[in-house]
Amino acid sequence: MTSHDDIAGSSASEIAESIRELRDRGMLRPGDVLPSVRALAERLSVNRNTVVAAYRHLAQAGFVTSRGRGGTRIADPDPIAQEGYAPDTVLRDVGTGNPDPELIPDPSRALASMAGRPVLYGEPIIDRDLEQWAHAWMREAVDHAHELRLTVTSGASDAIERLLAQALTRDDAVALEDPCFLSSMNIVRQGGYRPVAIPVDAEGMTVAGLRAALASGVRAVVCTPRAQNPTGASLSEERARDLRAELAAHPYVLVIEDDHFSMLSSQPYRSVIGPGHRRWALVRSVSKFLGPDMCLAVTASDPVTAERLAMRLSPGTTWVSHLLQRLVHALATDEDVVSGIRRAAAHYADRNARVARSLTALGLPTTAGDGLSLWVPLPVAGSAVVPHLMRRGWLARAGDDFVLSDGAGARHLRLTVHDLDDADGDRLASDVLAAVRSAHGSHGMIDR
User: Fold this and answer.
1) What are the residues whose beta carbons fall under 8 Å from the beta carbon of 221, sequence distance 6 or more?
2) What are the structural domains, with CATH classification, of the chain?
3) Is the overall model pTM greater than 0.90, yes or no?
4) Mean pLDDT computed over 365-372
């Protein structure tokens, strides 16, 4: 008897679970081809759509891959791409997406004022002083027609994961920008939701892409109004207005705005959430300007969404430490810290612009958007350029990591350059050009 013959079940969930168990027991191995939909449906005496649903569930969870005529195969689990420094590398890492540690405020003075009465079970989840400050911070970006409720979570990714979980069920469709922030992509994949790609251009999420996503039945939309990661795009006023118009006919689609760059952004905040929208959330993390270890984000949302989100944050188990909340409030209201955040914003913008000019002068036109990194268009696939940059001492990130659909962003590099001086920035630009030429296989294909 073969392992295929051990697949059992009369429902999609039972069939999917049977295949997972066979894989866990080693009876199905990475690369093994599963029976065709027709063959398995006939053997199990079920409708073909039942087998299709089982395979789809497994694909969304990453257990199998579909190769068209090549069949459905047990997946070889690849490591999920993550942000941050690459461990154990001797190369100059320009793919990190990290803020500059020299520009993260020193919390030692604020920590000295953290002592106070202990917080006990049953007390308010949000620190009173933080709530007062955060309400003003969020209200400036939320249409006054909306009643605003606040929730505090352990960072933006935690907020987005919980927001989707309180509104969706497995296999629901979620609209994501393409290319996409790695964390959002991974949240949707691991949650078993179905990603629907919306292209991003120089003005942000495209109107045609949102229209198509809504027509396909998405239940949630995740949008980055400014400093979109990885492209650096920010919504223009016209684009934001047109996106609001598209969403007006879908007021119960959950719209999540991720304003991750917030206090560092050089662009105005332009929301896609219209005054009549019923299910919405604005998420602002402090990690980019107070440091990644400050795992705190504030979410403003409509009352129903806030109530459902609060139910997933029971006191004593998943609430955010009041010590951390007090520290964030102390830093965010310190004039010296706020001045330092402004200087950091100017530094990131200056470094990005400087390297973008160097690349453009060498024949690789690059526009510096908003955010911590540069999104560099290439005439070849980024994955082909990265190995040649490694030979020149650089560890870069190919656009392929951020792609949801074929071709969207694959011919790009995302470069984090804010810790490079002018000389190193020029050297990186020259090495990118040399790596592109090597990837082409012909030095004559790029004009300088």
Assistant:
1) 174, 175, 198, 210, 213, 247, 253, 254, 255, 256, 272
2) 3-74 (1.10.10.10), 92-101+337-445 (3.90.1150.10), 115-333 (3.40.640.10)
3) no
4) 96
